[in-house]
Amino acid sequence: MALENIESWTGRAIETASTFEGEGVAFKKGDILFGKLRPYLAKVHLTETDGEAVGDLWALRHQKHVDPCFAAYQLLEPGFIDRVNGSTTGAKMPRAEWGFVGSIKVPTPPLEEQTAIAIFLDRETARIDGLIKKKGRFIELLKEKRAALITHAVTKGIDAGVPMKDSGQDWLGQIPEHWDTVPPTALFTESKERAHEGDQMLSATQKYGVIPLEEFEALEQRQVTMAVTNLDKRKHTEIGDFVISMRSMDGGLERARAVGSVRSSYSVLRCGPEVEGRFFGYLLKSSLYIQALRLTTSFIRDGQDMNFSHFRKVKLPRVPVDEQIRIADHIDRETARIDGLVAKTDRSIELLKEKRSTLITAAVTGKIDVRNAA
User: Fold this and answer.
1) Angle ∠(327,330,336) on CA atoms, nearest 5
2) Does 263 share its domain with 223?
3) Residue 242 burial class via C-beta count within 10 angstroms: exposed 0-12, middle 13-18, buried 19 and up
4) Cα 350 to Cα 324: distance, rounded to the nearest angstrom
5) Do 183 and 289 share a domain, yes or no?
6) What terms describe the molecular function in GO for this protein (predicted)?
7) What is the pLDDT of residues 15-50, one digit of tens each?
8) Model pTM?
9) At 203, which CATH number?
């Protein structure tokens, strides 16, 4: 199928009144909402009712010789999005201008062919979206399994036949009979050692642990505001130390992967001889421990920081070091297998998204004839 008619995008931006204060747009059924801020996000929505929306949006109304569903797919076509994105102004908040977007030339087949293309794409993209959704749910289940595996291993052990006993701690419940529960101070000491001269700045992150600030910026591809005051009060951190930060309430304690210094408001924990770092790395980020840690503080009410005083309130299991090593090895092995499945499924989702985009491009530009298929 060759699309011979090439014309400017066959819709127009609608100047509409809105009851919203500030930016907002009113639209009618069949209008297409298009995000003019950061257009690379491809925010395109074909409306099914009249209504109003808040945001940096255009309400685009198709002309009579255009099928609105086909027009929506035209706006989603990656080549179109790339051209719009390339025209934006503003570094931090790039916006497109309708004067440019409205003049972009697009293939425009007869109306009946537009409808056939739209029907075909509706069916095929729905099929692909269904597969993506199933794979996304599979990833969620794998992550739930991963978390459950870790929590069970660090609180119950990995020996199925071992006798159990009540730990006396609500968050732990039953534990192996040969384990004890002890105050955290029996296993860790708080270090208040000041930063050394030349210490690199470390960033305490839930995603990567405690790593150099420069490494965090490179991984996240963004800049972080560096501290410029109270540098002499920063705390020295060694590899393997644990750090308590404000984020510990949500994601547990972070383990240091490098030597350097952290903020003075953070608490630094040194491991004692009965601590295997990997085992407690998993334990102190497990869901049950995080819930127990949250119960030690009410800083939503009084604004207090989370620190060593909260940490010491939650008793911890004392496990033979050789068993800690076996448990950590087991978790490393099993989580690596699960992480491999997650990565493989993530890649298959990316391939499906690429297929979806390629299909839309081929259909709306006439590279494939879908009339019979539709």
Assistant:
1) 135
2) yes
3) buried
4) 38
5) yes
6) DNA binding; type I site-specific deoxyribonuclease activity
7) 444 333 445 788 889 888 888 889 899 899 999 998
8) 0.81
9) 3.90.220.20
